[in-house]
Amino acid sequence: MLGISNETDLNEQVWQSLTSRTVLLCSFEEYLQSERDQPFIIESKRLYARRSLHKIAIAMLGGNRHACFAKDISRMGVGFYAPINILPKKKVTLWFAGGKVLQLSITRCRRLGDKCFECGGTFQLPAKISRPHLCRSA
């Protein structure tokens, strides 16, 4: 039976409990190492430089929660890997450890592999952001 939990802190145990999970194309260690190798990503095509943000996150979309991996962040938005294809202009809430919650409007999403989509979204100003409540098995 599922019940509503008062959990407000994202931790690895909560993240691991989600059934909709992103499958990276590399190992988790390689994913973390790439942040150490290149902390800033500068491309001449972009308005703002991106900074690597290799952290676990939960994407909340239409009442569903998905275990994701953050990729990078800039002054305009966030890139992340998701297990599902998210259509442009969809509103997504990304929840990070420490209670940080970001509201995004998806601008792009492309398939990299099975259960691995590279998504990007721009920051949105939500009417009200509250810390999410998770469902937990009783």
Spell out the key features of this protein.
single chain; 138 residues; mainly beta; Thrombin, subunit H; 6-stranded antiparallel β-barrel; two-stranded antiparallel ribbon; 43% strand; globular; PilZ domain-containing protein
Summarize the structure.
The chain has two helices and ten strands, in the order E-H-H-E-E-E-E-E-E-E-E-E.
Describe the secondary-structure layout.
Blueprint: E1 2-4, H1 12-16, H2 28-37, E2 40-41, E3 50-52, E4 56-61, E5 64-73, E6 77-82, E7 91-96, E8 101-113, E9 116-123, E10 135-137
Antiparallel strand pairs: 1-10, 2-3, 3-5, 4-5, 4-7, 5-6, 6-9, 7-8, 8-9
Protein name: PilZ domain-containing protein
Whole-Å distance between the termini?
6 Å
From the alpha carbons, calculate the radius of gyration and give it in angstroms. 15 Å
**The CATH homology group name:** predicted glycosyltransferase like domains
Q: Percent range for helical residues?
A: 10-25%
Widest sheet: strand ordering: 4-5-6-9-8-7
Q: Report strand %.
A: 35-45%
Topology pattern, helix = H, strand = E? EHHEEEEEEEEE
Number of strands: 10
What's the story with the biggest beta sheet?
Answer: 6 strands, antiparallel, barrel
Which CATH architecture is right?
A: Beta Barrel
- CATH C-level class is Mainly Beta
- The domain tally reads 1
Q: Helices and strands: which structural class?
A: mainly beta
What integer is the average pLDDT? 80
Low-confidence stretches: 1-7
Shape: globular
Number of distinct helices: 2
Question: Which fold name corresponds to the CATH topology?
Answer: Thrombin, subunit H
Protein name: PilZ domain-containing protein
Organism: Bythopirellula polymerisocia
